[in-house]
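Cross-check.
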Amino acid sequence: MTLVPQWTGFEARALRLALRMSVRAFAEHLGVAVRTVSKWEKLLAATAPRPDTQAILDTALRRADPAARLRFQANVTSQSAQAPRGSCTPPLTTGRGADHESWADDLDRAAIALSHQDFTFAGSLLHRWLGGVELTRLDERGTYLAARSSSLFGDLMRDQGLLLGVLSAEGYYRQTRELYARLDLARRVAQADLMLVLVNEMRGRHRASIAAYEHLADDARLSGRDRARARLWLGRSLSKVGENLHAVRVLNLTAREFENLEEPMEWSVAQQKIALAHRGAGDLAQAVHHIALAQAGGRSPLQQVRLSAAQGHILVSDPATREAGLGALRDATELATLHGLGHQLRSIEGIRRAQGLPPAVLFPKEGGGSDTGGTGGRAGAGGGERRAVARRAGALGVPGDGARGPVLFRGGRSGEP
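Predicted model, tokenized:
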């Protein structure tokens, strides 16, 4: 699915055309005034909808049928060469000097925003630069910054589970690889190769990913940390195809590597994966032991979702701890919904299906009404953060129920993509 980091009138018009609606019908579909849509059509990239309308457009795109989403993507691609990009996406004017410094500063800010799963702000920072440059006309420094931007955009798409298409994790990682290859930066090219394998694994191509991870785990172009990450993801893939004892051996080696590299967050992720491999092998005592080790350190929202989901996966396997496991899965679902972690939500639903459980329902209807409106509707008063979670769940295509409130968390740097 396509994600638009920052909507302008340009993208809004592309969506209207993709949905094959008139200006009036599109306004009614979104729940906005006709004059608002007319303004977008007139000013295009020179105007940006308000934050609440940005969310409405996000939802309209997510709820569009696959054919309409493909038309939207084609519209954006074909019209970008013809439509001027306005002040909302300031172009790189000189290609060097002060622009490079500003660009590098924004990339640092985007990386921090991504570590806290602030996808909207990170996307806005990245789009500010990638949306305003011609990649073929950049100097060497500009090309390097464009490659970093593309890689971070790939991370943003991946964390939200947007894997396929031109504007997707795979598309941005391929662009990253091409730009680094142009600069003859072998280590960066190998890093892009590693991320492309990760996307392939996330799409369910585990056997092909296992072979690729084995190769990259011994690739001299990569740093020690990246080789250890390749081995970490190799162990996870082995576990997913049922080779759990092999996975435990690989992951124990990986945990020691991260310990030697003094990478506590990566070590925690390795412990989490070891726990799941033990669970797959039927050793619940070792699974509980390693998940406790994984939970010992600080964590970002993304890591907290992963840990809660892993803990739930282990606990629901034993009738004596099944209720505690269901609670952990609900916590993971709520936090993933709050932060727009689409891939994690699908993983949690996969765990529930495997256990014969119904789809997660986040919050009950209050007072006989619905927490969310249609594509263009706005939630009523009251319910505060619960309603915000329910709206986010609807936008991600997750059914909403359950009586548990939002989970508190501590921010931090995420370990594993």
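Residues 140-159 form the longest helix (20 residues). Residues 93-203 form one domain. Passed to J.P. for a second look.
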